[in-house]
Every structure is written in C-alpha cells, then in structure tokens.
Design brief:
Blueprint (H helix, E strand, L loop, with lengths): L2 E5 L2 E4 L4 E8 L5 E7 L5 E8 L5 E3 L7 E6 L4 E6 L8 E8 L13 E2 L3 E6 L1
Parallel strand pairs: 2-11
Antiparallel strand pairs: 1-3, 3-8, 4-5, 4-9, 5-6, 7-8, 9-10, 9-11
C-alpha cells in the first residue's frame, strides 16, 4: 500500500524557517514534488526532485528560498523553507511519481499526501 505522510507544518513569523518532511512507503518513486494551496487560490507547484537527486526544479516564487531534498534510504523527501513570507501561507502537499520524471504539473504525480498547514504571520 502506497502512502505519503507529511509532517513539519506549523506557525512561524515572516523571515523564519521551517522544514517539511514527507515519508513515503509502499513503492520506489522516481520523482517527488511539493505543491501548495493558498487561501482562495488554486493548488500550484512549489518544487520537485528526482530520486537520483541529479535534477530539481522550483517555482519562481520560491526559488533561492526553498530547497527540496530526499533521503532514498528512508523514502523521504524534504522541503526546507527559508525567509518565509506571509504569501507562503498554504496547505503543502507532498506528491510522488513511480515512473515519471519531475515536472510542475499535478497530473505527473501518482500519489499524494493529505497536506500539512504552513502559516506565516506578518
């Protein structure tokens, strides 16, 4: 049974950092990604990484502030978020693809976690 479980969400002040984790089980995934859904907005792409770690992509809004990484031995993907802004407030979702490559598209990913809330106060 494939499961993705996010953790690490919480409430922080603008300028602070937060690290999210996504523990995957039940399969070996070729690509991982993070998406987020802000209040009143659609779900959009944040970052993605290959299992090999040789390639990663980021949304322009988080580039240079967020870092995606993975630990293959633990089947876990991380999102290190620095210099957080109020506009980063959202529910963050972990996604994984068994066979696909990294992309910024929702349809590229086979499995999803239920999300973890990140709130950044001003």
């Amino acid at each position: 049974q494939v499961q993705l479980v996010e953790s690490g969400g919480g409430l922080v002040q603008a300028g602070e950092s937060l690290s999210l984790s996504c523990a995957a089980s039940g399969g070996t995934f070729n690509a991982y990604a993070w998406f987020r859904r802000a209040p009143g907005k659609e779900r959009d792409f944040v970052a993605a990484i290959l299992r090999s770690g040789s390639s990663s992509i980021y949304a322009d809004s988080v580039k240079r502030r967020f870092t995606i990484s993975r630990n293959n031995a633990k089947n876990t993907v991380y999102l290190q978020m620095n210099s957080l802004k109020p506009e980063d407030t959202a529910v963050y979702y972990c996604a994984a693809s068994l066979f696909g490559s990294i992309s910024a598209y929702i349809w590229s990913y086979d499995y999803w976690g239920e999300g973890t809330q990140v709130t950044v106060s001003s």
